[in-house]
Amino acid sequence: MKIFSAAQIREADAFTIAHEPISSAQLMERAAGKCATWLEEHYAPHYPVYIFCGKGNNGGDGLVMARLLLDHGYKVSTGILQYGAQASADHQLKLEALQQQYPASLYAIGDVSDIPTLPPDAIIIDAIFGTGMSRPIEGWLAGVVHHINGQRGKHTIVAIDMPSGLRADESSVQQTVIQAHHTLSFECYKLAFLLPENAAYTGEVHILPIGLHPDYITHTPTRYLLADPGIIQTIYQPRNPFAHKGTYGHALLIAGSYGKMGAAVLSARACLRAGVGLLTCYVPQCGYNIMQLSEPCAMCVTDEDPHYSLHFHRSINPATYKAIGIGPGLDTQPGTAKALEHLLDSYQQPMVIDADALNLLSVYPYLLYKIPAGSILTPHPKEFERLFGATPNEVARLELLSQQAIKLQVYILLKGRYSAIACPDGAVYFNNTGNPGMATGGSGDVLTGILTGLLAQDYSPKAAAILGAWLHGFAGDLAAAHLSQEAMTAADIIQWLGKAFLEGI
Ligand SMILES: NC(=O)C1=CN([C@@H]2O[C@H](COP(=O)(O)OP(=O)(O)OC[C@H]3O[C@@H](n4cnc5c(N)ncnc54)[C@H](OP(=O)(O)O)[C@@H]3O)[C@@H](O)[C@H]2O)[C@H](O)CC1
Ligand SMILES: [K+]
């Protein structure tokens, strides 16, 4: 699914009006109708509805909702904020219709004191500003937003299209923004919804299709995309009936150290369950028995050192391996950094670089320039900051993420609720599978195993990154559904990987 900017959504709107064709007033009727239906499906008519309308088309949506809900027997009170701007043409049209049919529903808000006391079970609809937000909310309008937010503990707040005050494409940090429980947004995700810094504003996001013209949607390129099931199905390659174990590649995982062998075992298991043909694990001597006993399907090569992997550049022939994953539980010994440098100098194919291997890159940043093109780096936000520096907000971090992926010609998968996969061509894919149960030790090691396994099977790095992140999250969702987010562990993500292939694709 494409993520359009606010400007592109305006273009899509105009394109639909011109080419469907449909009048803007009818399109508003369709959009607001979807919101009214959503509300009716979730709240019975005995819930009083308080709609707060701005003077643009977002407010117009609120006016249409008011009329439709009143038609269906709801008690609706519709306050219109009287700030200076001229009301939009469609707002005026919809206001006249409401005035004619239900004049008693309407009242003006010129200050916070005009807002009535709400009955206990009231639902608040925020139709103040949508994608037309052009500057921060200030003065008494900010007072209205604060007043509504003050009701959050007592009343459900539903934002139409965007929580008012939230910018679709820019950071809204330290601005006045409605804190909704639900956001009903039209046609597509907005970038702002995917950033953790906005979680308190959007609540649960529900995307309602309003029939924007498919030609615009199909032919307009976007920088940001959401990896939806349609994209996943085009990436997934069913296995060849004539396959043998050589068909699906030989992967090497360089992982584990004294006290952190669990990371290597989790990665190895995940790599195998992701479908790799053959797997060799390179571990320090202390890891030999652990690996051999834990995972009989993997082969094992050991370092000369009892506790750390310091010499893998000497004892492995990189040409043997279709894909290499390095980092989980590796530790950050100077000797490991040296071995990593030799490996980067001799291996030309895309690798998966995670955890302590990333930490080594942040200590020796010149190594970043030796990473083979097309490699996949999988930092969490702290690792990202250590690698590339801090940013004032998450929109700036996304920009930095994309710049670095272009500059280094690698894929950078920044882990989070919506992991962002920045590609060397400038595109950024968001993943929306996964849940907070996955915020647990070992989850990242599992992802590294999956990605390495997919790379070894000849998925392109881009396909491996998108499919791997999606499978990892979906398996986590299945694990949480059966075990709870609290009780699930990273090992359970691996257990549900099979079901994720069977049910998710
Ligand atoms: N294609 C679709 O998705 C459809 C969307 N619809 C709805 O339309 C809105 C966008 O409507 P628009 O009229 O462009 O914008 P808004 O309603 O969000 O707000 C514009 C008015 O607000 C003023 N404004 C903006 N920021 C502030 C502020 N900080 N303080 C005060 N006033 C502000 C702005 O004034 P200007 O001076 O900037 O002109 C306007 O008066 C979209 O979100 C959907 O809800 C359609 O209904 C259907 C198709
Ligand atoms: K709104």
Automatic annotation (TrEMBL):
This is Bifunctional NAD(P)H-hydrate repair enzyme. In the N-terminal section; belongs to the NnrE/AIBP family. Binds 1 potassium ion per subunit. One of its GO terms (molecular function) is ADP-dependent NAD(P)H-hydrate dehydratase activity. K(+) binds at N58, D126, S164. Homotetramer. Keywords: ATP-binding, Isomerase, Lyase, Metal-binding, Multifunctional enzyme, NAD, NADP, Nucleotide-binding, Potassium. (6S)-NADPHX binds at residues 57-61, 130-136, 161, 263, 329, 380, 445. Its EC number is 4.2.1.136, 5.1.99.6. Residues 228-504 form the YjeF C-terminal domain. Its cofactor is Mg(2+); K(+). It comes from Chitinophaga polysaccharea. Pfam families: Carb_kinase, YjeF_N. It catalyses: (6R)-NADHX = (6S)-NADHX; (6S)-NADPHX + ADP = AMP + phosphate + NADPH + H(+); (6R)-NADPHX = (6S)-NADPHX; (6S)-NADHX + ADP = AMP + phosphate + NADH + H(+). Residues 9-218 form the YjeF N-terminal domain. Catalyzes the dehydration of the S-form of NAD(P)HX at the expense of ADP, which is converted to AMP. Together with NAD(P)HX epimerase, which catalyzes the epimerization of the S- and R-forms, the enzyme allows the repair of both epimers of NAD(P)HX, a damaged form of NAD(P)H that is a result of enzymatic or heat-dependent hydration. Bifunctional enzyme that catalyzes the epimerization of the S- and R-forms of NAD(P)HX and the dehydration of the S-form of NAD(P)HX at the expense of ADP, which is converted to AMP. This allows the repair of both epimers of NAD(P)HX, a damaged form of NAD(P)H that is a result of enzymatic or heat-dependent hydration. GO terms for biological process: metabolite repair; nicotinamide nucleotide metabolic process. CDD domains: YXKO-related. The lineage of its organism: Bacteria, Pseudomonadati, Bacteroidota, Chitinophagia, Chitinophagales. It comes from the Bacteria.
